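Exercise 7.
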Amino acid sequence: MLPYVGSLQIPMTFFIIALFGVTFFLFIMVSGLVYFRLVYHSHLSGQTVPSLWVEIGPIGMAMSTLYTMLHLRKSGEGISFDLGWWSYVFPIGSFTSGTYALEKLTGSNFFAVASTVQLSILWICFIIVIWNTSSGIINGKLLKSRIPLSETRHLSLINK
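Solution. The predicted structure, written as tokens, is:
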């Protein structure tokens, strides 16, 4: 059970289990859509690959890693930076906090070293993403409008 919750211990436990249930079924639905797309359609572009990393879990991480490697190989198209790169930070942070919790729970030196290595990787990823996001906003390349000018004029006439 959950420590330090007091009289809300049982309701909080049921609430957490309910949230897990909701997110589990959403995970199954999104996974089905993603893998259907990977099997029956052409492969995703390098720009959309980072969004696969949001799908956390053993199968999602193995598939995301393989898809990333597909685009990073010499014959691949590469992965250009966009805001989807923030998707790399989330799963690494989740695994890092989980490993850190295992180290605190077990007192194992293995988990202490693993969580330190993962935290270093997380910080490196975070610095890369925040640097590219900041420079992309400053130089104006990241937040460009993707609506053609003709459609923008049409939208402004509708709003008048």
